[in-house]
Amino acid sequence: VLGRDIYELRVGTGEKKIHFNASFHANEWITTVVLMSWLEDRLIYISQLTNKNEYLKSIQLSIVPMVNPDGVELIYAGKEAAIGLYDVARLNENRADFYNWKANIRGVDLNKQFPAKWTEYKESIYCKEPYYRDYPGEEPLTEPEAIAMYELVKQNDFDMLIGLHTQGNEFYWGYCGLEPPNAESIAREFE
Question: How far apart are CA 172 and CA 115, in angstroms?
């Protein structure tokens, strides 16, 4: 929204494509740190392989470490991050800190911006206008961050997509029973 870049890192050139993303929600900024730490460990591991070139030709990692840079900046810098363009203080119920802020800078929950079951969610949600959390927008794919992620996924035939979120000691996987058959075993591996 505010012109900050959303970066994608690519490792490898193989046909097996795996995508990871983090910080869809601003208050889950720690997922960026976790993902980048994991990537560093993975790159060290790859560098020590005797067949690293073959490995890198067999797999392709797509990594978007921070989907919501404006929201994460709001967590750190406070309302000044909105550069006077959005009344984030009002959306945050006039709380001075933004530690609970999940949305992008316009008060739209990016995780709720996709066409999948959007109408059902919009009809059932408690907030009907921009807010610091949970508001799905007036329609799907109105926010540049969601559009960028949608286009990235649409343009790539990823074999697996892993979005990192954090809510403490819980581990969620799947979506409305639409996950592929091997999702549970993959989730248990990550857990």
Answer: 20
Distance (Å, whole) CA 110 – CA 142:
9
Q: How far apart are CA 79 and CA 62, in angstroms?
A: 32
Nearest to 143, CA basis, from 63, 62, 70: 70
pLDDT at residue 191, as a whole number: 77
H and E: helices and strands count for the chain: 7, 4
What burial class does residue 55 get, using C-beta atoms within 10 Å of its C-beta: 0-12 exposed, 13-18 middle, 19+ buried? middle
Query: 158-190 burial by CB neighbour count: b if 16+ within 10 A, else e?
Result: eeeebebeeeeeeeeeeeeeeeeeeeeeeeeee
Q: How confident is the model at residue 181 (pLDDT cuts 50, 70, 90)?
A: confident
- Written as one letter, the residue type at 169 is N
Instruction: Give CA–CA dist 164/142, Å, rounded.
Output: 22
Structure tokens at 180: 């592929």
Question: Cα–Cα distance between 24 and 145 in angstroms, integer?
Answer: 9
| Amino acid at site 141 | L
- The pLDDT confidence band at residue 23, using thresholds 50, 70 and 90, is very high
Residue 167's pLDDT band (cuts 50, 70, 90): confident
Instruction: Return the H-helix or E-strand segment holding 64.
Output: strand 59-64
